[in-house]
Design goal:
- With 173 residues, this protein is an alpha/beta fold.
- It has a single domain (4-169), classed as Rossmann fold, CATH 3.40.50.
- Helices cover 32% and strands 27% of the residues.
- The chain is built from four helices and seven strands.
- Strands 1, 2, 3, 4, 5, 6 and 7 form a seven-stranded mixed beta sheet that branches.
- Strand 6 (117-126) and strand 7 form a beta hairpin.
- Helix 2 (53-73) crosses helix 4.
- It holds the Pfam family DUF4410.
- Keywords: Signal.
- This is DUF4410 domain-containing protein.
Length: 173
């Protein structure tokens, strides 16, 4: 029993997998005329200075992660990353900052060293008319130290996609 008690705070820290800082900011431009049944997720651009092949790859992958999260919400009858004609909710945007981070630095040094970050901006658009429905900005970063051991880049990126998917679901049937 004496051995278990000192390990409890460490276990609790490792099990708290919620992402560190961040959230979703949304601004509605205009209300949709009717709920959407189809969601189209366009590829996300990479709006960061300088050539970074890995950043571009991760930005491209974000569209697939976002489409999965929207599908998991279950509010749309169809979710696609392919071009779609007709009435649909189109989600498009740009990754504005990303850093994969380093668990060893995050745990060993803390104080923000080795943190993972993911920021993006985007738009909800009526696919058939091009009418802007709203804009969003999402920021995610991992926690420091042992609390952030589970906040890897894929986790915080999926968390950001989950917030966007929840907002998209509000526009679904």
């Amino acid at each position: 029993m004496k051995l278990v008690l000192p390990l409890l705070p460490i276990a609790a820290a490792l099990l708290s997998v919620s992402c560190g800082g961040g959230g979703l900011d949304y601004a509605e431009a205009s209300a949709p005329t009717a709920p959407y049944q189809v969601a189209v997720v366009k590829g996300f651009g990479y709006k960061v200075d300088g050539p970074d092949a890995r950043g571009k790859q991760l930005s491209n992958e974000f569209a697939s992660v976002l489409a999965e999260e929207i599908q998991n919400v279950g509010k749309f009858s169809k979710v696609t990353t392919a071009s779609e004609s007709g009435r649909a909710l189109r989600i498009e945007g740009d990754v504005t900052y990303l850093e994969e981070g380093n668990n060893a630095l995050r745990i060993g040094i803390g104080m923000g060293a080795g943190s993972a970050h993911f920021n993006c901006t985007g738009r909800f658009v009526d696919n058939s008319t091009g009418k802007l429905l709203g804009t969003f900005e999402v920021e995610r970063s991992s926690k420091s130290g042992l609390r952030g051991v589970a906040d890897t880049f894929p986790i915080i990126r999926r968390s950001a996609a989950g917030d966007i998917a929840a907002k998209a679901a509000e526009l679904a049937h």
